[in-house]
Design a protein that fits this description.
The chain is mainly beta. It is 8% helix and 43% strand. A 10-stranded mixed β-sheet has the order 6-7-8-9-17-18-13-12-11-10, covered by helices on one side. It has a 6-stranded mixed β-sheet with strand order 41-40-43-44-38-45, with no helix packed on it. Strands 35, 36, 37, 39 and 42 form a 5-stranded mixed β-sheet that branches. The longest helix is centred in the first third of the chain and has 14 residues. Bound molecules: (dicuprio-$l^{3}-sulfanyl)-sulfanyl-copper and dinuclear copper ion. The site of (dicuprio-$l^{3}-sulfanyl)-sulfanyl-copper has 12 residues, from strand 6, strand 26 and strand 30.
Length: 666
């Protein structure tokens, strides 16, 4: 988003002249919240929110979970970035989650999320998210709110148009933002050979109905353009997918000018049922590529990485009837499908109108071959033949649209800083409210599904300016909640977000709440490093590797006195939390560790690797205030020189025998 801010600012200036009634600063800034607004956002202490709101963290790489309407931050779920607060990416068990074909990548940029669906309705099982930079898709398990799986995408770069799911979560779909030479050919080519060598790729990742396990079913090789966003068809448009594309100019430099030449770019309609037929008929080509698939096992409490070397690619140029282009004004961004599946909304970020396409008309145009030509071998449908109509003068810089299921669309206007409600049938604007400032995505619970739950609309802003107390050069980005039960949208609360929010989704809390895991059963813990009781705790040396099997229970570790660690040792602290109760994690930290802490859930085993850098005494302690005697939950480990004779000893509750450190020289 940030990359086209400046351009939009310029556009704003131009547009402000053209539409004198519009201004870039929202009106009514002083009295936006009034009357009963506060009561509508109030959730009494001890009471639960009615909705979960999953908000992308943008360049933080994480996903945060808020309650609605209170705006309470409930949790930050680490997905694509390491998180020292939770040990994610620092514990030996979670490190593999961040493996890629490039090696261990500790950061990414998370833009979009999609909750799993059954029959077009959110089922509360999983939420998927994209890594924009090093292309990956993650699945978060909503029983544990932990990242369960991450799959890398070959033939992709800038995985922005991702992840969007089909109505029964058959597929999670991801389109590449940057077209690049495919992975199985030499990419060492001149940049200005874009038109010849660069290709766009769309990945269809299948999802196992019971376990959620992902695997790349097939990819579509498409013309080299930039795919921006997408949504699957639904109800009558089931079996189709829609992608906004820009840079159909195929520019490779100064895109802000060179990719804005054409009056219209495209929405690409994809008949994925047809693609499946070709796949079954063996029309795909096997490509040798390299990508990594990481899975977290809830019983071993650890992740494994697998390198994959093959993908099946369908070529949309030679395999007819998979793809069609629909012209769409001026660099489309959002691509949204209404609950009936009939209307497809394209939001040209430089357009001063919102085109709404009709799926029925599109199908007629395709069967009548009502094309104006082709683009790299793919038919281009005549704009008017697919168009249902245009929302005129909606505001400036339309980006994203969600639906209330009552016949209205709601679109964010980045440049004119407002959210606009319009009627889908007659395409008339029925309400507009200022937002603060420059909104990107927006969300209505279930607002991109067959059955929205239209109580609230949340708008996620890119700029906060004067909304909050200043905090130096950067201010928190923000979300604003509107009550949309009445004719007019009513702003009831705004709250800061973590990182830059892009897409977000929300769902009634009862869809998820009851299946939430409270603790892991110790008897089901199959970690190779578990200690199922204090009697199993021990310290084992093999060469210079030392494994410490240590237990944690209120309010001590076992063992808590350890001697005989030597310089040059690699020490693995395997902490098993013996608690079998909700909300009693224990933490673990040791002085000088070049990693993070561990935060170990009840019944779980997690491992911290530690390589002491000098002899001496090292305390360790529990980092999570777990009981009245939490401060007592600690221990000592003694590190001796490499050549010393100190014996390996450990104990809990009693003193170790004399253990002199004598340097033995041979
Ligand atoms: S984008 S703010 Cu990265 Cu979803 Cu439109
Ligand atoms: Cu365990 Cu504090």
């Amino acid at each position: 988003m940030k990359n086209f801010k400046s351009k939009l600012m310029v556009a704003a200036g131009i547009c402000a002249l053209a539409f004198g009634f519009q201004s870039c600063k929202p009106k009514n800034a002083g009295n936006a919240v009034s009357g009963d607004a506060a009561a509508k956002a109030y959730v009494a202490p001890g009471k639960y929110d009615g909705f979960y709101n999953f908000v992308s963290g943008g360049f933080s790489g994480q996903m945060s979970v808020y309650g609605l309407p209170s705006g309470r931050l409930l949790r930050v779920i680490p997905v694509f970035s390491v998180d020292p607060e939770k040990g994610y990416g620092f514990s030996e068990e979670t490190k593999p989650m961040l493996n890629t074909s490039h090696g261990f990548v500790p950061w990414d940029d998370l833009h979009h999320e999609d909750l799993s669906q059954t029959n077009g309705v959110i089922d509360g099982r999983w939420i998927f998210a994209n890594a924009n930079n090093t292309p990956r898709v993650a699945r978060v398990d909503l029983k544990t709110f932990h990242t369960a799986e991450i799959i890398e995408l070959p033939n992709s770069a800038g995985n922005h148009s991702s992840p969007f799911i089909t109505e029964n979560t058959e597929y999670v779909v991801a389109g590449t933002r940057f077209s690049v030479p495919p992975d199985n050919v030499n990419g060492d080519v001149p940049i200005n050979s874009y038109k010849k060598n660069f290709k766009g790729t769309i990945s269809f990742i299948s999802v196992d109905k019971t376990t959620g396990a992902m695997s790349i079913a097939f990819q579509l090789r498409c013309p080299g353009v930039n795919f921006d966003l997408s949504h699957s068809g639904k109800e009558k448009s089931s079996g189709w997918f829609f992608f906004s594309c820009y840079n159909t100019e195929q520019a490779n430099t100064l895109l802000e000018v060179n990719a804005s030449q054409r009056d219209k770019d495209f929405i690409m309609a994809v008949n994925w049922k047809k693609a499946e037929e070709y796949l079954k008929a063996g029309k795909g080509e096997k490509q040798t590529v390299k990508y990594v698939h990481n899975v977290y096992n809830e019983n071993t409490h650890s992740a494994t990485s697998e390198i994959k070397t093959e993908v099946i690619v369908l070529d949309t140029k030679t395999l007819k009837d998979i793809c069609y282009f629909i012209p769409c004004p001026k660099s489309p961004h959002g691509c949204d499908v209404d609950p009936t599946g009939e209307y497809i909304v394209g939001s040209g970020k430089l357009a001063a109108l919102i085109p709404v396409f009709s799926f029925t008309k599109l199908m007629t145009a395709i069967s009548n071959k009502d094309f104006i030509g082709d683009y790299e071998g793919i038919p281009v449908v005549k704009y008017e033949s697919a168009l249902y109509g245009e929302v005129k003068k909606p505001g400036l810089g339309p980006l994203h649209t969600e639906f209330d299921g009552k016949g209205n669309g709601y679109t964010t206007m980045f440049v004119s800083s407002e959210v606009v409600k319009w009627n889908i049938k007659d395409l008339k604007v029925v309400d507009r409210q200022p937002t603060f400032y420059s909104p990107g995505h927006l969300c209505i619970p279930g607002g991109d599904t067959r059955s929205p739950n239209p109580k609230y609309l949340i708008v996620y802003n890119k700029i906060t300016k004067d909304r909050y107390l200043p905090t130096g050069p950067e201010l928190a980005q923000s979300a604003q909640i509107f009550d949309i039960t009445g004719e007019k949208m009513q702003l009831i609360l705004d709250f800061p977000t973590i990182g830059e929010p892009h897409y977000a989704q929300a769902v009634a809390s009862d869809v998820i709440r009851s299946s939430s895991v409270k603790f892991y059963k110790l008897e089901e813990n199959t970690s190779p490093f578990v200690s199922k009781g204090e009697s199993e705790s021990k310290v084992v040396r093999k060469g210079n590797r030392v494994d410490v099997y240590i237990t944690a229970i209120r309010s001590h570790f076992s063992p808590d006195n350890i001697e005989g660690i030597k310089m040059g040792d690699e020490v693995y602290w395997h902490i098993t939390n013996l608690e079998q109760d909700w909300d009693v994690p224990h933490g673990f930290a040791i002085k000088g560790a070049l990693t993070g802490e561990l935060l170990v859930m009840p019944g779980e085993t997690q491992t911290l690797k530690w390589t002491p850098e000098k002899p001496g005494m090292y305390p360790f302690y529990c980092t999570d205030f777990c009981s009245a005697l939490h401060q007592e939950m600690s221990g000592y480990v003694r590190v001796s020189p490499k050549e010393s004779s100190t014996a390996l000893l450990f104990s809990t509750g009693k003193n170790l025998p004399p253990n002199d450190s004598t340097i033995v020289k041979n």
